[in-house]
Design brief:
The chain is of the alpha/beta class and 119 residues long. 50% of the residues lie in helices and 21% in strands. The chain has one domain: 3-Layer(aba) Sandwich (Rossmann fold).
Length: 119
């Protein structure tokens, strides 16, 4: 399965210390260039989200996750577009999950702060 990681999924996983890459072993995992930009913007600061964003950036680099080039300006629009092409979208964003499901795509999310679940 090809899986696309969204910003809030990466930040939430880092905050809750969910081992998403162990869960996704055997799958092709990607992110988007716009997601990397969002993480970089979030990482500038002192909040808990900033620390989690910095950890997420380090994990993406350590795991050598490829960032796909976006054709859309907004990350959510690109994630929906890619979901129509067969990518499963990993996100915590309820509105985005609904958009992906309506377009016929697959969604993955973290439940109860520790379980990676398909929807």
């Amino acid at each position: 399965m090809r899986i696309l990681l969204d910003t809030n999924f990466l930040v939430f996983a880092a905050m809750k210390k969910v081992r998403i890459f162990a869960e996704f072993k055997g799958n092709d995992v990607y992110t988007l260039d716009v997601v990397e930009k969002e993480l970089a913007k979030l990482a500038n600061g002192n909040s808990e989200d900033a620390a989690a964003a910095r950890l997420a950036i380090r994990l993406l680099k350590a795991k050598k996750i490829k960032a796909l080039k976006s054709q859309e300006r907004e990350a959510d629009d690109e994630l929906v577009r890619r979901s129509k092409a067969g990518y499963a979208v990993a996100t915590q964003d309820r509105a985005l999950r609904e958009r992906v499901k309506k377009s016929g795509g697959k969604v993955i999310f973290i439940r109860q702060g520790r379980y990676v679940m398909p929807e």
